[in-house]
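Appendix B, Record 12. Input sequence as logged:
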Amino acid sequence: MSDIRQPTLDQILVAQRCLTPEAADRAMRLCQDGHDRLDRILTRLGLITERTLAEALAAHTELPLFTADAFPTAPVLPAQVSPRFLRHHRVLPLRHADDELTLAMADPLDRWPLEALAYATGARVRAVVAASGDIEAAQDRLYGSEPNATADTGTGRRIALRFRLTVARMLDRIGFGRFYLLGCQNHPRRQHWTGSPPASKTWT
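Logged structural output:
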């Protein structure tokens, strides 16, 4: 079976004529030099708007595009999903009904948060696309602002989550898998396996 590589974000934007090849090359060089995530570089340089970026990703993935007026007025599954996990992966649960969780994603090319949330909640996860700024504003409104919270570059984020998902599946044997994966703070024995001091209320 041949290995079919999925197009990268810059390739998608060039193919959809949202970005010139020259602008994509310029942004990719900055990204590879460790300046920031590619999407953030593109918007900060004024090469693309968050809305156009979300529209391009929705068109490429054939997923619905949601705007902020469709976002919830209260946190969805707050006891099962930590704000830190949501901020780190730039996702936001929109609704949970009939065993289905609707999840807004700024980066629908990253499938690991979908798998992690399906595993942790036991629900079918339906992805939709939303602008990164809309998701971040909703997170601040629903969970409180966290100025120092930043997201890793895509590769580092995916590797970290893949590792945590693997460990969580192993910890399932002793009943700790879901708590480990999403960083829930309610498990009575969490201090014994997170390395956090007993008085701590927040996972790192």
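The longest strand covers residues 91-97.
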